[in-house]
Request: fold
Amino acid sequence: MFSSLKTKIIFFIALVMIATAIGVLYFTHRDVGQAMSQAEEASAENVLRLVELNILGGYQKLLTDRIGAIKQREARLKTQVSSAASVLNQFNLLATKRLVSKKYAQQTGLSWLRSVASMEQEDLFVFDENGVVIAHPDPVMQSRSIDPLRDMKGRKIAAVMSADVLDPGGDFAVFDWKKPGEEVGSKKLGYFIPVQVWKWTVAAVVDISDIQAEAERKLEEIVGVLKKTFANIQIAKTGSVFMFNGKKDMLIPPHAQEELDYRSTINPRTGNLLLDDLMGAAKSEDYSMSFVVSGSGGNRVMEAYVRYFKALDWYIAVAVPVEEIQAPARALVTRQSFIISLIFLGSLGVAYLLVTRISHPLNLLASYARELPMTDFTADEEESTPIDDLSAKFRDEVGRLAESFVFMRTELKKNVKELMETTAAKERIESELQIAHDIQMGILPKEFPPFPDRHEFEIYATVEPAKEVGGDLYDFFFVDDDHLCFAVGDVSGKGVPAALFMAVSKTLVKMEASKGLPAAEVLSRVNRQLAQDNPSLMFVTLFLGILNVRTGEVEYSNGGHDPPYKLSASGEIQPLELTDGVMLGVTEALNYQSKKNQLQKGETIFLYTDGVTDAKNPDDQLFSEARLQQMLTRLQEKSTTDIIQSIRSEIEIFSEGTPQYDDITMLALKFNG
Reply:
């Protein structure tokens, strides 16, 4: 009896409609009033929810615009202050090298800063450890104290932004500042960076009061839009939507109860001010309350539904007369039974015709769905199927379902083709990157021990790019029978560009060092060649040393690289004293210096790139130089291979699976005597 879908559908439609008719007739007479109240409540809830979403959308856009404006100004301030602090540090470097006096360097630096600050939109200035302004584009501000300035947390700007306590990375602060000659102060955003060697603080300040004003203007626009929206909302006959704030100011008054003053109206049911009761209802569990109002037509019982938008301290309320909610229910009861009877008879007839019409194409679609997995989607030509004409014959859900099947078949064929092309392209790129990785690794020494017949020293090195290819490099080779040249470098950036620059740098280092030149001269020549044609402004930090394998003397020069550690025979771990020198490739007009260090028997030099100390764990903590020194202290008696492999294992344990951010390179050289 129920073997076909057609019979099942007709039977269950009849069963459902009979049960529905009995239930509706019974419950309509008993609960129709309550049902209409619930329907009206749901309608009011929907209105409130839509209004809340409208307000939330406008408020989120307001916040986004405000945060975006602040972030833009923060970025601009940070760039200006960082550049200024960098220049002042360069002047200090000149004084440190004794190329100029400290006083001359300070005066020249401040003079430069005033000239630059006069061209900026923001206030760029410097104050000393006492909070006294020592450089400002406005002469009136010169020598004035900023001690009265306090940030939004009540802290003194001069104290928390002093060079003695300020973090080297700088900090932001928001504060009110009334400068000399201004009648009214304004809210400012400032960024501060210390010049610690001179105990100065470089700051840039920009006015952000316009952002607050723009936010208030947009709030007014939101209220204006809501006024138009509320005017078009129809709830029952005389129900209305209105809005007020926590100060009981009516932002949008009700349009259907003009005679009612909600601000001064007392709720007879509680004896409280009506607005107080509405505010209390907004914070209750059901968000609703009832009250009685008096008007020209007599007393009316009102049902109110209230929501509170905490971010703006706004209350949105919908008020509907209870009699208007119940009126449709009374009319509904008189005609409900007759309509249900007609619907029941008509629905059975329509259901029979509809099910009969649907069952045949559904059978076709079911058969096609079973055959679809066996379809060859790679074929160029599509074969005709029984469902191709269904969409033209049926303009209803069956037709749209047939269209969906045809569309699915077309899209599957398209996606299969695109997937095949994408997969081929991805495999080609991965293959090329793997080849590039193999080539890059191939130009680095990787046979250990590299010189089996030489026992005066022991050397081991490793590099692990963060991507398929990287910018770190290491190299070691004999200049002559008695001198071993070794180097470690770190190219700016990552990926293929860094790998190419690394290959060029390594080639130039080996070419120049093989001439038997001093370490400083090698760096100078390599720097000139890298800087001559460097449109991408890439650079490389490089440490280069030359070990006399007979005496243990190391001549070395450094180009902006992290200092290597010396594991001395006494058990002390200390960095080598660095020579003055910046990274290679920045400018041709650079000269480098050499220094020497004597290795005793059993002493080791450990070189590395910042990928070691900058490795992070899931808590965003760095591996750090302190942890590296602790490990070197424990490993100083180990072989060079054990030292590097132990540190690499420790980094993996520390990272706990955190993706590697930077290339990791290490080289250890032990003098055996």
